[in-house]
Amino acid sequence: MPIITISRGSFSGGKTLAECLARRLGYRCIDRDVIVERAAAYGVSQNDLRDALEKPPRFFDRFMHERYFYLALIQSALTEEVREGRALYHGLAGQLLLRGGHPVLRVRIVAPTERRVKIMQERMKSSRKDAIAYIKKEDGDRRKWTQFLYGVDWEDPSLYDIVINLENLGMEEACRVISSLALELRFESTPESQRRMDNLAIASRVRADLAINRSTSGLELDVAAHDGAVTITGKLAAMDQIDEVRRVASGAPGVVSVNLEKLAPPIRG
Predict the structure, then answer these.
(1) Is 142 left (phi over 0), alpha (psi -120 to 50) or beta?
(2) Which of 43, 39, 49 has its CA nearest to residue 81?
(3) Structural domains in the chain, sorted by start
(4) Residue 214 dihedral angles phi and psi, to the nearest 5°
(5) What is the pTM of this model?
(6) Cys bridge to 90: 18, 24, 194, 242, which one at CB 3.0-4.6 A?
(7) pLDDT tens-digit profile of 104-126?
(8) Which uninterrupted H or E stretch holds 110?
């Protein structure tokens, strides 16, 4: 069975669809709050983690590194949460954060603006004007967020395996279509796909551990893992950080060796 990710705009019915699919397929249903809570176990604020997932960056964002920091923790939490498969995640950028692991059935849900406005008015008791402004802002923020971090437009259909328009399709019908697709594709977990997922989880954990460690928290590093062999790429701020990078990376669960040959030394003034 694949992991399923659901991308949707606010008040598009993504949560309802996710819960329906979870019941049909026997999957664990995971939302953003579950991931934020797990990531907060590193000792950081849940509010700050939510901001990192929701607020778009400014052009010259002096908090750019903080965004890297929080996303490192979020990706680590998400990969651990879905590591064993049979999981469904409905939250921002799940299909991007999980690239390279288990097979992922990437679903995009769209709904007419009028339908979304009506749902928001009913749930939040807001005016039509406020509902329209809120939905427009949320969609714009998500577009800026994915463009900034991944260089893609979150509405690009090529990012998804299936796009469901709820204009003329009921929720139960949409649920049936997607669950049937998930079953027919038979993305069964194989030893190779589990190995890829384990590699992604190890790499994400190492990057999060380096981000949270005081001596290495100022660095922005790329981490790759292959059967426990970890390779770290990036630039050091000071040469004495190399021993700490090795120590932190070596201490992550599943790491058997650490290659730092691709770490660039600091630029001397």
Answers:
(1) alpha
(2) 39
(3) 3-185 (3.40.50.300), 192-264 (3.30.1340)
(4) -60, -40
(5) 0.85
(6) 18
(7) 899 999 999 999 999 999 999 99
(8) strand 104-110
